[in-house]
């Protein structure tokens, strides 16, 4: 069940970029408290929270759904009223590790609340222990409907009985009293799969191309040499003609 944490906030009238920068330099985090009344279905009030107290609250919380009992004070520190609210958005500086803004949504204690609750496995599946299977998380959160005070921090699922090829479905979850799941009942939450077989490819034999020997072509245009004299016979012919 979600733990309700007390949180003091102050109303603020300063708005605008310059005012917000000054507020953060003073050790405060700006935020907005959203709520509703019969006269005004949607209202938003600008608030500020001590940065160190807010960081401590978030650090001690084990759930993504943080329920807070908000004590709203005026700028003089006098209590104005109180609200039950859900911390729905925390914005951090993109480069530096500090909170720059938060959103609180006021909720009514006797109205059904819809929220995402994380799930966690418990135990080692039989298919993993004896068959070498792999446990896979198919859903990391479950959407639930319940009264605010019944909102669980975490849904723990026993997976020790799962064999290879088996799953735990949404319809099989053991939820706390007053809590119902909104996800389709047939969706698997955890499944055990057979181990993947490693395919070893056989080495490919290198194909060697046969060496081709090319015969050197002879010059067909060259005149054949004299069978007896060879080159000397060719050289002697012009000399003999010159003596005539």
Task: Walk me through the structure.
This protein has 244 residues and is of the alpha+beta class. The protein has 4 helices and 13 strands. It starts with a strand and ends with a helix. Mean pLDDT is 82; it is low at 224-231, 233-238 and 240-244.
SSE topology:
Elements: E1 4-11, H1 17-25, E2 28-35, E3 43-50, H2 51-60, E4 66-73, E5 79-92, E6 99-106, E7 113-122, H3 126-129, E8 134-137, E9 141-146, E10 155-158, E11 167-169, E12 180-181, E13 188-193, H4 231-243
Parallel strand pairs: 1-4, 2-6, 7-10
Antiparallel strand pairs: 1-3, 2-3, 4-5, 5-6, 7-9, 8-13, 9-12, 11-13
Task: Please give the radius of gyration in angstroms.
Answer: 42 Å
Low-confidence stretches: 224-231, 233-238, 240-244
Structural class, by secondary structure, is alpha+beta
The rounded distance between the terminal residues' Cα atoms is: 134 Å
Order of helices and strands: EHEEHEEEEHEEEEEEH
User: Which sheet architecture does the biggest sheet show?
Assistant: 6 strands, mixed, barrel
Question: How are the strands of the biggest sheet laid out side by side?
Answer: 1-3-2-6-5-4
Output the number of helix runs.
4
Per CATH, the superfamily of the largest domain is Ribosomal Protein L25, Chain P
The number of domains is: 2
The CATH architecture of the largest domain can be given as Beta Barrel
Q: Report helical residue fraction.
A: 10-25%
| Mean pLDDT, all residues | 82
Name of the CATH class of the largest domain = Mainly Beta
What is the oligomer described by this structure? single chain
β-strand amount: 35-45%
CATH topology of the largest domain: Ribosomal Protein L25, Chain P
Task: Report the principal-axis shape.
Answer: elongated
């Amino acid at each position: 069940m979600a733990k309700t944490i007390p949180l003091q906030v102050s109303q603020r009238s300063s708005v605008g970029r310059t005012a917000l920068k000054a507020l953060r330099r003073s050790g405060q985090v700006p935020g907005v408290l959203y709520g509703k009344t019969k006269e005004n279905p949607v209202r938003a009030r600008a608030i500020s929270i001590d940065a160190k107290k807010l960081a401590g609250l978030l650090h001690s919380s084990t759930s993504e759904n943080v329920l807070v009992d908000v004590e709203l004070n005026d700028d003089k520190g006098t209590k104005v009223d109180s609200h039950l609210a859900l911390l729905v958005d925390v914005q951090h500086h993109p480069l530096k590790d500090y909170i720059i803004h938060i959103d609180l949504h006021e909720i009514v204690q006797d109205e059904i609340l819809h929220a995402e609750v994380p799930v966690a496995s418990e135990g080692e599946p039989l298919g993993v222990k004896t068959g070498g299977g792999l446990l896979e998380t198919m859903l990391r959160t479950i959407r639930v409907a319940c009264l605010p005070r019944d909102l669980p921090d975490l849904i723990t699922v026993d997976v020790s009985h799962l064999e290879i090829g088996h799953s735990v479905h949404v319809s099989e979850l053991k939820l706390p009293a007053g809590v119902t799941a909104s996800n389709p009942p047939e969706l698997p939450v955890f499944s055990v799969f057979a181990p993947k077989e490693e395919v070893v490819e056989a080495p490919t034999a290198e194909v060697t191309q046969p060496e081709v020997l090319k015969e050197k072509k002879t010059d067909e245009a060259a005149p054949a040499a004299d069978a007896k004299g060879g080159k000397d016979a060719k050289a002697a012919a012009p000399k003999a003609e010159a003596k005539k």
